[in-house]
Design brief:
- The protein contains 13 helices and 17 strands.
- The protein is of the alpha/beta class.
- It is globular and about 65 Å long.
Length: about 450
């Protein structure tokens, strides 16, 4: 009898201990700090790209803003049915935290999604439903999935009329992008060109009816009044960049980027200032689309300019974080565009004043400073004053699985470590927005 009582006491004590551990574990999740989230998505970018713009702009021993982000994850970017992701599938996985089919735009193929949290909303729309201020920025068209799927869904990314209208109807506090043509009826003249909507809906007028202050210029961007509740910035007819090869751009007399369009860093600085002045935390998703499109066009010059713009935007985010430590900065791409690599040899094998061969020995196309068959790139000086010549080799015009590196700084950034599945981007952002670390 005495032994049975002892066993019962031990059992009760053990059960109590387990329940206490579970309760404490749940409590630690509920008590996790919440804060702002800035997700920066330089589409199509992998490690070789970051290495390239470092040596080009700051020298082989220089430092990018991207380098200042401490926590590193080796990104695994497969979808439900493919190894290499598409832009829409990758963005959907970031926005919902679950695997989806390749051509999914905020859905799983043509089926509605349940997110990792159990909601039928994206992480951004769930944040909005809980009073968090939200904003999206894209250097490309408004319908680009890297930002679009966070606030809209459709059975196909080709349904641009429907998607652009849904993005406006999402009620996001701030939307900055190109894509005026997606918002105006066919033939209607806008600030940058003619509309191409087939449904006849003027979505600019709809946005104004929904309370958006609509702006179009860098000057208007820098002078948004403090009493503005919601703002829609449209800064190009289509993309803010010209995603063609170097040779085509030279022939057409075009620059990589439209000079009148604000840069990603300029848009981000205004967006952070706008959202942070509102009551409560904010969630901002930012995409540099030029990195993907120039990579797919095998335009090294354009790709480097696009990625430098993304790095400048990261610098803006880091400056905000230095004064607001309750902020998570997280960055990742969903795949690698063009399979770019850089290499540089002794000058006697790669003369600075002589054009590169059009192809490497294995047939890979080679880029110099102005495209195929032009002079090699030259790095910025290292600490010893040396500069090095290099060439760019491309493996494809498509996206590849590649060597994407995800990084994070700030609140809950310790969750970014080791091998990171693409679904984990959602989990890290969710922990910061809602104070819950999902399994």
């Amino acid at each position: 009898m005495k032994k049975n009582l002892i066993r019962l006491f031990i059992f009760i004590l053990g059960t109590f201990s387990i329940l206490l551990t579970i309760a404490c574990s749940n409590q630690s999740q509920l008590d996790a700090k919440t804060g702002n989230v800035i997700f920066i998505h330089p589409d199509g970018t992998a490690l070789a790209g970051w290495n390239a713009i470092r040596v080009l702009n700051y020298g082989p021993d220089g430092e990018l803003n991207w380098d200042r982000i401490s926590n590193i994850g080796l990104y695994q970017g497969y979808t439900k049915n493919t190894l290499t992701s598409s832009s829409e599938a990758g963005a959907t996985i970031h926005a919902y935290g679950v695997k989806v089919e390749l051509l999914s735009y905020g859905m799983d193929g043509d089926k509605p999604l349940t997110s990792r949290s159990g909601s039928n909303l994206s992480i951004m729309m769930e944040a909005k439903s809980k009073g968090i201020n939200i904003g999206i920025i894209n250097s490309g068209k408004i319908v680009e999935p890297g930002t679009g799927v966070f606030v809209a869904s459709d059975i196909s990314r080709a349904n641009e009329d429907a998607i652009s209208k849904k993005i406006i109807e999402s009620g996001a506090d701030l939307i900055f992008s190109g894509g005026e043509e997606n918002l105006l009826p066919f033939g209607v003249e806008g600030k940058f060109g003619q509309g191409k909507r087939k449904d006849g809906v003027n979505v600019i007028e709809l946005a104004e009816q929904l309370g958006y202050k609509v702006i179009y210029t860098r000057e208007a961007l820098s002078s948004i009044s403090n009493d503005t509740e919601k703002v829609l910035g449209i800064f190009a007819c289509s993309h803010s960049f010209n995603d063609k090869s170097e040779e085509e751009l030279i022939k057409l007399g075009l620059q990589n980027y439209e000079p009148e369009s604000p840069t990603l860093a300029e848009m981000m600085e205004v967006a952070i200032n706008f959202l942070s002045k509102k009551k409560g935390n904010f969630f901002l998703v930012v995409e540099e689309e030029g990195t993907d499109n120039f990579g797919n066009a095998n335009n090294a010059s354009g790709y480097f300019e696009a990625l430098k713009r993304a790095d400048d935007a990261i610098g803006v985010a880091l400056n905000f974080y230095s004064k607001n430590p309750n902020t998570l900065i997280i960055t990742a791409a969903d795949s690698e565009a063009g399979g770019m690599e850089i290499y540089g040899f002794l000058e006697k094998y790669m003369m600075r004043d002589k054009p590169l061969p059009e192809r490497a020995n294995n047939g890979a196309p080679l880029d110099g400073i102005n495209g195929t068959g032009t002079f090699p790139f030259l790095t910025a000086k290292d600490k010893s004053g040396n500069q090095f010549q290099f060439a760019v080799a491309w493996s494809t015009n498509d996206d590849v699985y590649g060597s994407v590196v995800a990084k994070a700084e700030g609140l809950h950034s310790e969750l970014m470590k080791g091998k990171i599945d693409n679904t984990e981007i959602y989990r890290i952002m969710y922990a910061t927005l809602f104070g819950v670390i999902l399994e």
